[in-house]
């Protein structure tokens, strides 16, 4: 990044529901700990830089509110109109089994075992032996 000599690492993220003021006061002075209400979640705080895997601590009330805000695969969201959780693109996540299956392997071309080596192009201005041979 430009003009950044040192980059501070992100600490844990705490998502809370109803226990607002007490929790914010408890964690506000701890460095690199971010606190956010479940109703005001920010994707860049949950996954900074688009990288998944930040350590997130959810309170019990926050976990219960998540279902009412975003819904589940069975129920629709109560607070967001017409919002449905996104489904996975792949039904079967075992990619190795799909690639090695007979249906896929019958269509895929064979591996080329012979490697064609391209001869090295030599510069005649530097290698005078090429000119005279």
Residue runs with pLDDT of under 50 for 5 or more positions? none
Query: What's the assembly state of these chains?
Result: single chain
The beta-strand count equals 3
Contiguous helical run count? 6
Main beta-sheet strand count, sense and barrel state: 3 strands, parallel
Layout of helices and strands:
Layout: E1 13-16, H1 20-27, E2 34-37, H2 43-46, E3 56-58, H3 60-70, H4 95-99, H5 102-107, H6 128-132
Parallel strand pairs: 1-2, 1-3
Structural features, described:
The chain is an alpha/beta fold. It has a domain at 13-86. 29% of the residues lie in helices and 8% in strands. The protein contains 6 helices and 3 strands, in the order E-H-E-H-E-H-H-H-H. A 3-stranded parallel β-sheet has the order 2-1-3. Strand 1 (13-16), helix 1 and strand 2 (34-37) form a beta-alpha-beta unit.
């Amino acid at each position: 990044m430009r003009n950044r000599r040192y980059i501070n690492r992100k600490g844990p993220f705490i998502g809370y529901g109803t226990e607002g003021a007490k929790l914010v006061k408890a964690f506000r002075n701890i460095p690199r700990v971010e606190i956010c209400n479940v109703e005001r979640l920010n994707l860049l705080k949950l996954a900074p830089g688009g990288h998944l895997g930040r350590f997130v601590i959810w309170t019990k009330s926050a976990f219960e509110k998540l279902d009412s805000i975003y819904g589940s695969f069975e129920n629709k969201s109560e607070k967001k109109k017409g919002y449905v959780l996104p489904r996975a693109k792949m039904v079967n996540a075992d990619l190795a089994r799909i690639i090695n299956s007979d249906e896929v392997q019958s269509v895929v071309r064979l591996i080329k075992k012979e490697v064609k080596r391209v001869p090295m192009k030599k510069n005649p201005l530097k290698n005078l032996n090429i000119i005279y041979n």
